[in-house]
Write a structure and sequence with these properties.
The protein has 441 residues and is an alpha+beta fold. 19% of the residues lie in helices and 35% in strands. The strands form four sheets. Strands 1, 2, 5, 6, 7, 8, 9, 10, 11, 12 and 13 form an eleven-stranded antiparallel beta sheet that branches. Helix 5 (289-298) packs across helix 6 (300-311). The longest helix has 16 residues, at 5-20.
């Protein structure tokens, strides 16, 4: 069974966000220092670029378990951005940083072209699939308001070469699929040449027909051996599409949780998922006309962001403010009396993180309790490093929205006492910890 259209669309929406993450940051202007160093994620440089100190490593590699029969087929979409250098030239063809007319500006800048190479459906057997992306050179005239030519823009893209290698073995009754995506371009001559021939924001969308992918963070109980054997290099695979979907997998250069999704309140991409849409939209509206003019001249995608933010009405702005969701987590003991708001000083005196407790599987977990950590529902990479390790509880907190957070220090951490002394704890939700001592209370 393969994924339906809606599931594919949901997976691609997240993949598009991954593709452009960090592409251009607020204030979306070429002159902003934060936009001098770009292409932060999923950069696969040509061969030897990393060893020669000219660019990034040339490959990403992933392994993941599947349940599939002999007739199963897998489809792979290799997706990345292709750097396109936009050079503004004067009427005599001399490259310049920018040109101005009475109502518009043109800047030299590195744009990006989306590339996708589809492979499959193919059987789950060892295979290698080379691919090439041709270069290009395009010229566009620049005219003033009267129609006179005042310059030109030259857009250039270098040719790219790559390959995808797939292999399969059997571990613990599961098929372990291994995929390596490589940039096979010739060695670079300098950092700019390396960047021009890199795969930028590289990631994979996989679809399995006749089988199921399995989560690496919440696998079946009998899949421990195959999950433990899986290795990742510069990427992480997560189940894609809506919850319950197991026919789609997103191999992302950014660590995500299973079944990631775009918030329905989002009005469009902002290329900066470390920020909040509402804050960025409001910040865009505070930009001066000159700043907006430069942003629009920097990149067509920046111009779309500026225009979209300026079109936001009061109702759409309010939708960005957030959504209240019920939290099914157990409440911290003791709970606040009715009518006491979280900002009331009485709320502070009613809780004591050093002595409060939370019920987990019928056991009261409090300071001093020993637990085993099972991170599963969050996207923090650091959480995954502590999977299966034991820890000691030091505090129990409840946030203003009713969420419960258990602060712990890892028992095998040589700096555990130091972390506890200055309050640097790891925080997990109650459903991410397993009590190791105490009886039901």
């Amino acid at each position: 069974m393969s994924a339906d259209i809606a599931a594919r669309a949901a997976a691609r929406a997240v993949a598009d966000a991954v593709l452009y993450e960090g592409y251009l940051l607020y204030p979306y202007r070429a002159s902003a220092r934060k936009n001098v160093c770009r292409w932060q994620f999923g950069v696969l440089g040509p061969e030897r670029a990393a060893a020669d100190g000219l660019g990034e490593d040339s490959e990403l590699a992933t392994q993941f378990p599947v349940t599939a029969g002999e007739s199963a087929r897998i489809s792979v979409a290799v997706r990345f951005l292709h750097r396109q250098r936009r050079t503004v030239r004067s009427p005599d063809g001399t490259p310049v940083a920018e040109l101005h007319t009475a109502g518009r500006s043109w800047l030299s800048w590195d744009e990006a072209v989306e590339q996708e190479h589809d492979i499959g459906p193919i059987p789950l057997v060892h295979s290698v699939f080379p691919f090439t992306i041709p270069g290009a050179e395009e010229t566009e005239a620049i005219s003033d308001d009267a129609g006179g030519v005042v310059g030109s823009m030259l857009r250039t893209r270098e040719p790219l070469r790559g390959e995808l290698e797939l292999s399969v073995d059997i571990i613990g009754g599961y098929r372990r699929v291994s995929i390596v995506l490589r940039n096979t371009g010739a060695a670079a001559t300098d950092p700019d040449d390396a960047l021009a021939r890199s795969l930028l924001g590289a990631h994979l969308i996989l679809e399995l027909d006749g089988g199921r992918f399995h989560s690496l963070t919440d696998p079946p109980a009998d899949a421990a051996a195959v999950v433990e054997s899986c290795c990742q290099h510069r990427c992480f695979p997560v189940l894609a599409g809506p919850p319950g979907q197991q026919e789609l997998l997103l191999v992302s250069p950014i660590i995500l949780y299973d079944h990631p999704e775009i918030a329905p309140q989002s009005q469009g991409p902002l290329f900066d998922s470390t920020e909040i849409d509402e804050i960025l939209a409001l910040r865009v509206l505070t930009m001066t006309d000159d700043e907006k003019r430069e942003a629009r001249a920097t990149d067509p995608l920046a111009a779309e962001i500026i225009d979209r933010c300026e079109r936001l009405d009061a109702e759409r702005q309010e939708s960005l403010h957030g959504v209240l969701r019920e939290d099914p987590s157990p409440r911290v003991l003791p709970t606040l009396e009715d009518g006491v708001d979280w900002w009331d000083p009485l709320a502070d005196s009613a809780v004591a993180p050093d002595t409060d407790a939370v019920a987990v599987a019928g056991v009261l977990v409090r300071k001093g309790s020993r637990v085993r950590l099972h991170p599963g529902r969050r996207a923090d990479a650091q959480d995954l490093f502590y999977a299966g390790r034991t820890a000691r509880v030091v505090t129990v907190h409840e946030d203003v929205d009713g969420g419960v957070h258990v602060g712990v220090v890892a028992e095998d951490d040589p700096a555990a006492e130091l972390h506890e002394w200055y309050g640097r704890y790891l925080y997990f939700a109650p459903d991410e910890i397993e009590p190791l001592d105490g009886s039901p209370e």
